[in-house]
Structures are given as C-alpha cells and as structure tokens.
# Entry
Amino acid sequence: MEVSFTDMELQIWSIHWTAMTALVISLAVSLFAVWVGFRLSNGIYNSAESNIVAKIAVTVFNLCVAWFLLFWWAYMEWHTNGVANAFAELKAAGTSISPNAQMHLDAGDPAAPLTILPNLVQGLFLGSILVIQLAQTWMTKK
# Structure
C-alpha cells in the first residue's frame, strides 16, 4: 500500500507537532507547580506556626495552578480538534488525506468550541489534587 502525503497535510502535521512540543513543556511546568503546591501545603500542615496569610497565599497558589491545568487541558483538546478540522477541510476540498490523518479526523471533534470544562477523569484527578492540597493547608495536625 502506497501512502502519499500532500504538502498541505505535511504542513498541518508539522504545525501540530510544533504545538504539541510547546504543550509538553507547559505540562511539565504545570506538573512542577502541582508538586510545589503539595510541598507548600505539606509545609503548612507540618508547621505549628503557620498563619492565616500563609494559608490564604497557598490556597490561592493551588487554585491558580488548578486553573492553569484546566486551561492546558482545554487548549490541548481545542488544538487537537483544530487539526482534525484542518484535515476535514483538506478532505472536503477534494484532496486525499493519509490514513493517519483520517484516524485523527475520526477521533476528533472538528466543530467543538474551546471549553475549560474537564471530562470526568480530568475532573476527578484535579479534584483529588485540590482536596489533598487544601485539606493539608486548612486542617490542623492532630
């Protein structure tokens, strides 16, 4: 089976993987920030001298990190759907697309708008992170 790529499809793939590289870097920074949030909340939990200002600052930090993760997930999905839309437009223009591009198109939702509403697994994951961090921040050690 011979697979041929058009120049336009190669450009779409190139832009896609360039954006994915940037997304991986931002994910690494976000995961580092989650780890910092765990360290900060654990430090407050283990300290008998933490004051309300520190607790509020750590809470705000952890909520901001959660916001960044929600936006990261939203942008990741939006970008993937945008690439699927580019393949759909290419196919609608009469250009043949590769099987991989077709799989990407089939797996995506080209018409989906940008939304920060997480799916169930993302929501459970982020919720559990926040519960652990905020519980350590606001509960006293027994």
The chain has a mean pLDDT of 92. The radius of gyration is 21 Å. The helical segments are 7-46, 52-92, 99-107, 120-138. Residues 52-142 form one domain.
